[in-house]
User: Fold this.
Amino acid sequence: MESTSIHINNPAEFRREALAWANQFPIFAFYDSNGYGERLQHYDWILAVDSLKTLALNNATGAFDLLEDFKHRHENSWLFGFLSYDLKNDVEDLSSQHPNRLQSPELLFFEPRFLFRMSGNKLTINRSFLEATALVNIINAYELPKEPFSKKIELFSNMNKEAYLERVRHIQNLIRHGEVYEVNLCRELASYEVRINPLTTFLRINDVLRSPFSAYVKHEGLHILSFSPERYLRKQGDEVISQPIKGTAPIGETPEENEKIREALAANRKERAENVMIVDLVRNDLAKTAIPGTVRVENLFEVQSFQTINQMVSTVRAKVDPSYSSIDVIRNSFPMGSMTGAPKYRAMQVIDEVEMSRRGIFSGTIGYFSPDGDFDFNVVIRSVLYQEKERYLSFTSGGAITFDSDPEAEFEETLLKGARIGELLFQYR
Assistant:
């Protein structure tokens, strides 16, 4: 289908109107770079609305093969969706013991009926000029609905501080015995019988946090509100890039204070050790589908400042062996090392043994495939998951546990990562 470009006078306002319009459909996906330029391949944001064809899987068995087939049948189309963490069970001989309380598919991708791509003031729509102009006029008339939400939202954890500390010590004992080197341990905070307006909630938080890999996916009654600072994997041409995050510190109150915090984070031996272990894991994952000798690390231990947090980010690049497909690249690196640990297989076993809820879409990935064969996917962290039919809201955070971890500090890090979202949304309990 042809595309048309239209000048938009107020892109920020149009973004809100377009999301309000999209919300009438049972499915849409939105990706926002929040001003981080190239993060969306030269687009400020992308909005995919309604479905021509959908692949939704509730069983991990054979999921990547089915996705490969779906993508092949729509190889000249944009495809949008997500992969849940539980697809680890398709990659390895693993299982997930906890119930799927969010009732979310383990894999969802769709070919959109409407596609909007915004760059500066230029909006590109997959419609003829007349259709695109009429559609913009319709969207301009949409307003955000008034927000129904619980006056007091409380999150309850099935893993309190004492239980979390006990599991940190258990993981450290496994490290002492040489079973693992690092394990990402998370705890879920959840609320039941809670009512929110997911769209206005997303906009309110996104406008404050301005994360570079923010995303919002709606699929029937499931809403994924992701404010992620981390890229899982991007393919552009014959090159793939992964940018794992390990190492966290708060934002300083002044530029001078923040610079000192950044310097301390960059020099922290424990944080650097965490980061380099995951970088090595990512190197190994990408090497499985890369041309030999092309895997390289750049910007090792780079400290990046976001709105509410400092993070240590490293970048790994590789050139893809043309004998491997895009799905092969993802399958061989999934789930991402920053959310599992090392060695990955044993770390994932430990995670399922010690965590008390199913991760589902948390620590999975949201992204898209473009018609030219490229793709871009985030890491689903710093995210609010909401099932409106059950009025169930979930928020999960965690961190990497190593031999040198201080259990108390690790627990405080789980609070730090969710603090700003918590301030905007709920009261912790």
In short: The mean pLDDT is 92. The chain has one domain: 4-233+345-428. Residues 94 and 213 are 29 Å apart (CA to CA).
